[in-house]
Amino acid sequence: MIVVTAVSHRSSKEVDKEAYYKRLEIMLQDMFGEECVSNTNDSTITVTVDGKTAVLSLETRTVECEEGLDEDETLRELVQLAAQRLYDALSPANL
Length: 95
Hints:
Layout: H1 17-32, E1 37-38, E2 44-49, E3 52-57, E4 63-65, H2 72-90
Antiparallel strand pairs: 1-2, 2-3, 3-4
Helix pairs in contact: 1-2
Domain Pre-mRNA 3'-end-processing endonuclease polyadenylation factor C-term: 9-92
Pfam family, one: CPSF73-100_C
Organism: Aquarana catesbeiana
């Protein structure tokens, strides 16, 4: 009989936020280019593509765009979905 024991180095079931933020920044730079992604403070990442800007809140994983611009909706959805999928991928499984 073989017994496999999983050992977790983290006691909480939270995502390591610092690692998530860094990986998210790298992923967005890969998606849009380094010149399009800026992290001016510890709580947001800004993505600017073709004059359209999306501001991603790192705490809530929600994206805000300039008001009144329907064409920003595609960029908003793309950035928000990418952030959420990466967060989900890094989240520990509930066993």
